[in-house]
Specification:
The complex is a heterodimer of chains A (about 270) and B (about 725). By secondary structure, chain A is mostly helical. Chain A has 13 helices and no strands. Chain A is globular. Classes of the chains: A mainly alpha (about 270), B mainly beta (about 725). Chains A and B meet through helix 3, helix 5 and helix 7 of A and strand 3, strand 4, helix 2 and helix 3 of B.
Chain lengths: ~270, ~725
C-alpha cells in the first residue's frame, strides 16, 4: 500500500513547470552571471529550456518528433564527445518523453522511455550530486509502472536522493528530490518528517551557484509547489499563503503554483 | 580639437591592457571537462564555460586577479593570474571532491565483495518468493545454485555439503543455522526472522575471503540499519503463536525489535496426521532481540540476540531398527557489531558468542552435547577512490564441543537393549586468520578483485593459505560475466560420524553470466570444484576427494505488473575418490528442475505455485545381513557398486495463497500453504527390516496443509 501511495504521489509531481522553460535571465535566484564564450556547443546552450520546448511542442502537436529529433542530435554529439553531461540531458529528455507518452495514454511507451533514462543514469560512472538527484527523480517517476516491484525499488530511490544531498548540500534539486521522496512516503512508514526542512532549504538556495546554461537549474519551482501543498495538507494556511506569494512572485507564470490559489481562497 | 586628437591617440595607453587566457580543463581520468565555470574572483561578471574539449578562452584585464574554476563534483580551484604564462595554454586538472562522512557510510553499507556475489536478496524478495515461506535461508533453495535435496533450510550450494558453506550474520558466522537439526534431517526452517533482515548476499561458490572457514559458498546476512516504522505484529497459525514489536527510540536512528514465538504440534499434526506419520510431536519457544543505535556521528552499534528452546519426538529408523527418538536443544547466541566511519575508512569490530546444549535419544543411543563458540573479527575498509577499495582484517574463531554419548557398541546394532559404550569427549578448535581483499574498477566495463587469507596455526594445526581472484566484465549494458577462481579452507564440524575438526579444502573455478532488465532476469553458470579432506558422509562412508562439475540456467520473466514466471535447471555431475579409486558420487543429476508462477496483486490476492523435479538420489544397496552371534544382530553387507541404486524421481508442487487487507493503520494478512499438493511419495531412504532381507521406504514430506494469519498494527 505504501508503494502504491508513493506511485500516486510521484504522479502528482509531474512538473508542468513554467520555470523550466524560462531563461536564466528571468531567474532572480541564480548566482552571479558572466559572459559565456561564443564558441561553446550551440546544441547544449540552454538545453534544459530546449527539452521543455520540445515537450510543449509535442503536447500541442500530438507527436514526439521534436523530442526524438533533439534526442538524435544529443546522441550524435555524445558519440562524438563522450561527455557524460550529454547523457544527463538525454535522461532528462526521457523524463519528459515519458510524461508526454503518459499524457497521450501510451503507458507502455511511457514506461520504456523512463526506464531508458533510469538505465542511463544508473550506468553512469562517477555520478555527482546532480546525477544522483536526476536518477532519484526518474526512479520515483518510474514507480507508477512497476506494480509489485515498487517494493524493491523505493529504498534505492531514498539512497540516491540521500547521496545527492550529501554530495552537495547546497544543490536545490537534490534537496527537492529528497523532500519529494519523504513527502510521498506515508507517515506510518517513516515519511513526511523531513519534507518541510528540505523544501525550505531547496527554496533558500540559488538555482545555480553561477549561471551556466549548460547545467541544470530546475528544482526551485517544484520545491515551492510541493511546500505549498505540504502546508495545505497540514492546514497551515498562513505558511501556505506566505510561500504562495513568494512562489508566484518568483515564478509568476507557474501553472502548478498558480493552480493552488483556489485551495487558499478564504483560508 | 588638436588636444582631443592627442588624447585619443594616447588613450589606449591609459586603458587596461587586455590579454587572452586560453586553457583546457581535465578531470582525474584525463577526460576533458565540459561545462565547467571559469571566472575571475574580483570581476565575477567575466567568465567562460568550457566547451566539449574542455577548452575555454577568457579576456583578462587585471593580472592581479585570481582565476576560479569550478564544476559539480570537483573541488574548486583558485589560481593567481600573476603566476601564469599567458603565452601558454593553461592545462588544469580538477580533482574530485573527497567523500563526506555520510557518503562513506552509504558506500560502506555494501560489502566490498558485493559485486562478486551471485545474488542479493532483500526482505521483500523473501516474502514474495513462493518457495521461501517467509524464511531467509529457504529463499535460497529456489536458486539454481542451491543443491539442497533434503528439504532442509540449511543451504547446500553447488553440490557441496551444507557444513562446508557458511552463513554469516553481521560479520559473525552462525553455525548450524536451522531449527531441530538432528540425525533425522529435520531443520525445515532456519533460525532467522526476515523482519530483522536488511539484505542477504549469496556467494554460490568462491566465497569471499573477507570471511574464513568456508570452502564452498557463503550467505552474508545484514540486519536492518533503519527501522521504517513502529509496528506491533501478532501472528498465529496451526502451530504457531508469535509477537513482534518494532520500536524506534528517542535517540536518532536507534530502534529495537523484540519478538517471540511459541510453536506447538497438536493442531498441525491433528490436521495432517495421515501424511506425517513419523512426526509425533514438537514444541519450540524462541525469542530474539535486535537493537541498533548510533553512538555519535561516526559510530554505530548493533546487537542481535537469539534464544531457542526446542524439542521433538519422531519415529526414526536406523539402520534396521525403528522406534521413537526424542531430541531437544537449548541454544542462545549474541552477535554484536561496532562500526566506526572515518572520512574514507570504515572500521568494524564483530563479536559473537553461541552456546547450545542438545540431547538426542534413540534405541541404545544417548547423546548429550554442549557446544560453545566465540568469534571476534576486526576489519578495516579503505575507500581509496571510487575505483579502488581495499579491506583487511583478522578473525579469531574458537569452537568447543563437549560430548557425553552412549553409542552403539556395534554400529549396526541399534535397539533399546543392544549393547552400548559410553564416550566422553572434549574437542576444541581455534582458528586465527588474517586477510586482505582489494577491489579495482578498472574501467566502466571491467572490475577485478584479489583476496588472500592466511591462518596462524596453533600447535599441530596445518599451515595454509587461501587465495582467490575474480573478474567481472560488463560487455553490454545489463549483461555481466563473472569469472572467479581460488583455493579455500574450512574446518568441518564434529558430528556423530566425525570426531574431529578436520581441515578441508577446495579448488574452485566458476563462470557466471547474468542479464538483468526490469522484467527479465536470466542467469547461467558453469563451475568445477575439487573438494579435499576427510569427507565423512554418514556412518558408513567417507572419502578423500569430491570432484563436481555443474551447469546452471535460470530465467525469470515478469509479465505485466503482477505475474511472474521462473524456471531453472541444474546439471550436476559428481565423482568421489577414495583411496585413489574413483566412484560415482552421491549427487549426480542430469537435471534439477525448479519452476514457479506467482501472481501478486496487493489488495486482491497473492497466489504462487512452485514445483521441484529431479531424479532420485543414489545410495549403496545392502546385499544381505550377516548374523553376528556374539551380539545377536545382523551386520549389513553392502553391494560392491558404490551408489549403484537409485530412489524414485522426486517431484513436488507447493501452493501458497495469501490475501492482504488494510484497515487504516492496521493490516491483516491471511495465508494458506499446501506443501506437496499432489501428495507425491518421494523416497528419502530405504528402511530395512531387522535382517536386511526386505525393505520399504521412508518418504519426504507428503501433502501437508498450513494456514495462519498475521495482524500488523503500525504507528
Amino acid at each position: 500500500m505504501r508503494h502504491l501511495l508513493i506511485i500516486f504521489c510521484f504522479l502528482l509531481t509531474v512538473p508542468t513547470s513554467s520555470c523550466i522553460g524560462e531563461n536564466f535571465a528571468a531567474q532572480s535566484t541564480n548566482g552571479p552571471a558572466y559572459q559565456v564564450a561564443d564558441y561553446s556547443e550551440p546544441l547544449l546552450k540552454g538545453v534544459q529550456q530546449k527539452v521543455f520546448q520540445a515537450f510543449v511542442a509535442g503536447s500541442i502537436s500530438g507527436d514526439a518528433d521534436e523530442m526524438k529529433s533533439l534526442d538524435t542530435e544529443l546522441e550524435k554529439l555524445y558519440e562524438e564527445s563522450g561527455q557524460k553531461l550529454i547523457t544527463y540531458w538525454r535522461a532528462y529528455l526521457k523524463f519528459y518523453s515519458s510524461i508526454y507518452y503518459l499524457k497521450m495514454g501510451d503507458e507502455k511507451q511511457s514506461e520504456k522511455e523512463i526506464d531508458m533514462g533510469v538505465k542511463w543514469m544508473k550506468n553512469m560512472k562517477d555520478k555527482n550530486s546532480e546525477d544522483y538527484a536526476l536518477l532519484a527523480m526518474l526512479q520515483g517517476f518510474s514507480l507508477q509502472f512497476k506494480g509489485m516491484k515498487v517494493m524493491f525499488m523505493s529504498s534505492n530511490i531514498k539512497d540516491n536522493a540521500k547521496m545527492a544531498v550529501e554530495l552537495d548540500p547546497s544543490n536545490p534539486r537534490a534537496n527537492y528530490v529528497y523532500a519529494s521522496n519523504d513527502f510521498h512516503t506515508p507517515a506510518m512508514y517513516g515519511g513526511g518528517k523531513q519534507a518541510e526542512e528540505y523544501l525550505l532549504k531547496a527554496i533558500s538556495l540559488p538555482a545555480q551557484k553561477i549561471e551556466n546554461e549548460y547545467l541544470p537549474s530546475w528544482g526551485r519551482e517544484e520545491a515551492y509547489e510541493m511546500l505549498i501543498k505540504l502546508y495545505i495538507k497540514e492546514e497551515k494556511w498562513e505558511k501556505a499563503k506566505e510561500h504562495f506569494s513568494a512562489g508566484t512572485e518568483e515564478f509568476p507564470e507557474s501553472y502548478t503554483i498558480n493552480q493552488l490559489a483556489s485551495k487558499l481562497i478564504g483560508k | 580639437m588638436r588636444y582631443l586628437l592627442f588624447l585619443f591617440i594616447l588613450m589606449p595607453q591609459f586603458l587596461p591592457a587586455q590579454t587572452i587566457l586560453n586553457g583546457r580543463i581535465w578531470d582525474d581520468d584525463k577526460k576533458p571537462v565540459f561545462g565547467a565555470n571559469v571566472y575571475l574572483l574580483q570581476d565575477s561578471e567575466k567568465g567562460a564555460i568550457t566547451d566539449l574539449e574542455g577548452k575555454f578562452s577568457l579576456e583578462i584585464e587585471d593580472k592581479d586577479d585570481s582565476l576560479i574554476v569550478s564544476y559539480i563534483g570537483f573541488a574548486e580551484q583558485r589560481i593567481s593570474l600573476s603566476t601564469l604564462d599567458f603565452g601558454e595554454i593553461l592545462e588544469l586538472r580538477l580533482k574530485k571532491n573527497s567523500y563526506s562522512l555520510e557518503t562513506v557510510q552509504i558506500m560502506a553499507r555494501d560489502p566490498i565483495t558485493d559485486q562478486f556475489s551471485t545474488v542479493m536478496i532483500k526482505k521483500m524478495d523473501i516474502y514474495l518468493n513462493p518457495v521461501a515461506q517467509g524464511d531467509p535461508l529457504k529463499a535460497i533453495t529456489a536458486l539454481p545454485a542451491s543443491t539442497t535435496i533434503d528439504e532442509t533450510a540449511n543451504p547446500s550450494l553447488r553440490g557441496s555439503s551444507a557444513d562446508r558453506s557458511r552463513v554469516v550474520l553481521n560479520g559473525v558466522p552462525i553455525y548450524n543455522p536451522v531449527r531441530s537439526s538432528q540425525l533425522n534431517n529435520q531443520g525445515f526452517f532456519s533460525i532467522f526472522n526476515p523482519e530483522i533482515m536488511d539484505r542477504q548476499y549469496i556467494y554460490a561458490s568462491n566465497p569471499p575471503l573477507t570471511y574464513g572457514n568456508t570452502s564452498a559458498g557463503l550467505v552474508e546476512i545484514q540486519t536492518l540499519k533503519e527501522l521504517p516504522n513502529n509496528q506491533i505484529q501478532l501472528s498465529t497459525g496451526l502451530s504457531n503463536l508469535g509477537l513482534m514489536l518494532s520500536q524506534k527510540l528517542k535517540a536518532e536512528d536507534s530502534f529495537f525489535q523484540l519478538y517471540g514465538n511459541y510453536q506447538f504440534s497438536e493442531a498441525y499434526i491433528g490436521l495432517n496426521r495421515a501424511n506425517i506419520p513419523r512426526l509425533q510431536s514438537f514444541e519450540t519457544r524462541d525469542a530474539g532481540l535486535h537493537f541498533s543505535t548510533k553512538l555519535g556521528e561516526k559510530m554505530s552499534f548493533s546487537s542481535m540476540n537469539y534464544f531457542i528452546d526446542e524439542g521433538a519426538a519422531y519415529l526414526t529408523h536406523m539402520p534396521s531398527y525403528e522406534g521413537s527418538s526424542v531430541s531437544g536443544q537449548k541454544r542462545g547466541f549474541s552477535v554484536n557489531s561496532l562500526s566506526y566511519m572515518g572520512r574514507k575508512t570504515v572500521l568494524s569490530l564483530n563479536q559473537g558468542i553461541d552456546a547450545a546444549s542438545s540431547q538426542f535419544s534413540f534405541a541404545n543411543l544417548r547423546s548429550n552435547r554442549d557446544i560453545r563458540r566465540f568469534f571476534l573479527g576486526l576489519n578495516q575498509k579503505w575507500i581509496l577512490s571510487e575505483d579502488l577499495n581495499i579491506q583487511y582484517g583478522a578473525s579469531f574463531d574458537r569452537q568447543g564441543v563437549e560430548s557425553r554419548d552412549s553409542i552403539p557398541e556395534f554400529y549396526y546394532a541399534s535397539a533399546p537393549d543392544a549393547p552400548s559404550i559410553f564416550s566422553a569427549e572434549n574437542l576444541d578448535n581455534s582458528n586465527l586468520e588474517a586477510y586482505a581483499f582489494a577491489k579495482w574498477e578498472i574501467n566502466d566495463q571491467l572490475n577485478g578483485s584479489l583476496g588472500l587469507r592466511k591462518n596462524v596455526p596453533f600447535e599441530d594445526q596445518p599451515d595454509y593459505l587461501s587465495y582467490q581472484m575474480s573478474v567481472k566484465y560488463q560487455f553490454k549494458p545489463a549483461h555481466h560475466l563473472l569469472l572467479s577462481g581460488g583455493k579455500y579452507h574450512n574446518y568441518a564440524s564434529p558430528s556423530f560420524f566425525r570426531r574431529n575438526f578436520d581441515l578441508q579444502s577446495s579448488y574452485q573455478l566458476a563462470l557466471d553470466y547474468q542479464w538483468i532488465t526490469e522484467n527479465t532476469q536470466l542467469s547461467a553458470a558453469v563451475y568445477y570444484k575439487d573438494e579435499r579432506g576427510n569427507l565423512a558422509q554418514d556412518f558408513f562412508f567417507s572419502w578423500d576427494k569430491t570432484l563436481s562439475t555443474g551447469v546452471e540456467f535460470s530465467l525469470t520473466q515478469n509479465i505485466g505488473d503482477y505475474l511472474s514466471i521462473n524456471f531453472s535447471n541444474t546439471y550436476l555431475q559428481q565423482r568421489v575418490i577414495w583411496q585413489e579409486d574413483e566412484y560415482e558420487g552421491p549427487l549426480n543429476f542430469p537435471f534439477i528442475f525448479k519452476s514457479s508462477i506467482s501472481y501478486n496483486q496487493p489488495g486482491l490476492v497473492s497466489i504462487a505455485l512452485s514445483g521441484f523435479f529431479r531424479p532420485g538420489t543414489t545410495y549403496t544397496g545392502i546385499l544381505e545381513g550377516r548374523f553376528e552371534p556374539s551380539n545377536g544382530f545382523y551386520e549389513p553387507i553392502f553391494e560392491e557398486s558404490l551408489y549403484g541404486r537409485s530412489l524414485n524421481n522426486y517431484s513436488r508442487l507447493d501452493l501458497n495463497i495469501s490475501r492482504y487487507f488494510r484497515f487504516g493503520n492496521k493490516a491483516l494478512i491471511v495465508f494458506l500453504n499446501v506443501g506437496n499438493l499432489l501428495n507425491q511419495q518421494n523416497q528419502r531412504s530405504p528402511l530395512y527390516n531387522f535382517d536386511y532381507s526386505s525393505f520399504s521406504y521412508e518418504y519426504f514430506q507428503l501433502r501437508s496443509i498450513y494456514a495462519g494469519l498475521v495482524w500488523q498494527l503500525n504507528s
